[in-house]
Amino acid sequence: MQAASEPAPVYAAIDLGTNNCRLLIARPVRDGFRVIEAFSRIVRLGEGLSVSGRLSDAAMARTIEALKICSEKMARRGVSSARAVATEACRRAANGNEFLHEVKTATGISLDIISTAEEARLALNGCAPLLEPPHREAIVFDIGGGSTEILWARLLGGGRTDVIDWISLPFGVVNLTERFGPGDIQSGSYAQMIDLVADELRPFEVKHALSQKLLSGQIQVLGTSGTVTTLAGVHLNLPRYERRYVDGCWLEFPTVIEQSRRLASISVPERALHPCIGEERADLVVAGCAILEALYRFWPATRLRVADRGVREGVLVELMGQRRQIGDGGRHNGWRRR
Fold this sequence. Notes:
By secondary structure, this protein is α/β, with parallel strands linked by helices. It has two domains: 11-114 and 312-326, 2-Layer Sandwich (Nucleotidyltransferase, domain 5), CATH 3.30.420.40; 119-307, Nucleotidyltransferase, domain 5 (2-Layer Sandwich). It contains 15 helices and eleven strands. InterPro entries: ATPase_NBD (IPR043129), GppA/Ppx_hydrolase (IPR050273), Ppx_GppA_N (IPR003695). It comes from Ferrovibrio terrae.
């Protein structure tokens, strides 16, 4: 048993997606964990992947530089247990395994390429604290850079959930933007994006008729991703993005759709002027809006809950749960101090 004077172990989780590299470092506390450092950088690892089928040298270099920063932060914080996961870009790329080897050599970080099923489960676990009574079920979606995961879950109480079914759509903000451009209403590309995603989503709705279940008011809809958090920041008119105002907030879903259409009606430079969008997201944000509107087409909930949390938090929850089960606070998982 850990001595009273011994500091709590430090855990880290890295989520390397098609667009972003994200790190969380945390210590366990009685009701969960306390974040002691966070890092996020847009790396666009999947840039050009939909055309070439490979990760480009430039994208890999950007990503490795971000992961070096993660490794340095983990070493400085004395991380004792960590897990780093990679998602759609590495799943699809013909040179994905080669990239993982380069990352290990350059940073000491061992990336696990996880399945879409595990990605969805981790995102749900990370968001579980925001799923609340009186809702009995939830639709949870995670709009990524290269794919979008959607879960239908049952709420069991005490922050526990049970996945009833899930689907992974092969569309995210990066590959959809590469296919249609930055998206706008005038050219019709925004509507084309929505229709494409809706066609892929339709069988899931036909199978479960969730639109009818929504009418009961017992299904909560929650979104986690840069798209929904960005839209929340825009809607709240924040002078700069601040997680404390966004994470857990409720938005009127029809208002979010109106905001999405407004963004699709202005130019990329105009989008970039908003401090919650900026130049890095200006060309990608409307693709996320299109995915969101396709979801709304089938599931027009009154309100949407926004989560600035997801896979990273899910990884931390599982790491800390494993430690409690096996009593090992000094295990190094997928990372070594350099």
